[in-house]
Amino acid sequence: MARFLGFFFCALGGHLFKFGFVTRLLRFAAGAVLLAPVVIQQITALVEDLPSLLATARERIAASVTPLTNAFAPPLDQFATQAVEQGGRVVLAMLGRGVALVNVASLLAGNFPVLRKLLADDHWHALVRDFFVRHRAQTPYFPEIAQEFLDYLQNGRESEPWDPPFILELAHYEWVELAVSIGEEGREKGDADPNGDLFSGIPLVSPLAWNLSYRYPVHRIGPDFRPDTPSPEPTHLVVYRTRGDDVEFMQINTVTQRLLQLLQKNPRWTGRRAVTRIVDELHHPRPEMVLEAGRQLLEDLRARNIILGARRSAP
Fold first, then answer.
1. How far is CA 237 from CA 28, 100, 115, 217, 252, in A?
2. 120 assigned to some structural domain
């Protein structure tokens, strides 16, 4: 049998030599036979050394990446154990999850810059990690992650001892600034005459002018001002977008707030009618003075682009 096989391969080799195949075939076979034990030994050693290799890789990553990445990295023993038990899929899944978490953390830090500055690193990282793990987002779009984060703060999160008392109001205010900056509604100005009479005509309030009230003076909060208790009186603000697409705010009193509310809730009212309603509510002894002040206020709001102009036609 051995002689037959030897003869067969010799004959086959003779034919293959004619086509130049046998040399490459024999070299490949010999190399495979010689290298197989080495390859198997290397693979075995790699599997046995996987925990230490992962530990080394983890140390090198920790030395080169930002503190933000380190804060979200999984514990080393968990990382290595799962990798050994389940193989490369676990490694890829955990790396992918870590990258996504870092991206979300970076995005939220940009959307809520004041809140990020006020929280210690450990507290911020814990907050983002809890949001990432517990919150079930309703949108896959990154520009809407800020709204998901606000919903998480308001409805899906238990307060922590290190929370500042104004955390919800500050987050809402910063989210409003973002929403006004990216909103598209204010670009549709065809219904407004920018030079129209706001007193005899119908003022059109910009849809990107948000009329807000807070217990805390959120527009002043920062590293140098952290109130512990609400203000004696509510803080009324209008956050709006200018004609140059900048986002600004205006602190207003209750009269201005009431005027904007009346115009927004009654889109057929003239400026005079809205101001007259306020005069009646105030029972002011000199209504003419209030009417004139109301006229000037309407013009000031138009200059700021809070009022776009007079409606060209009644809605």
1. 79, 35, 19, 9, 6
2. yes
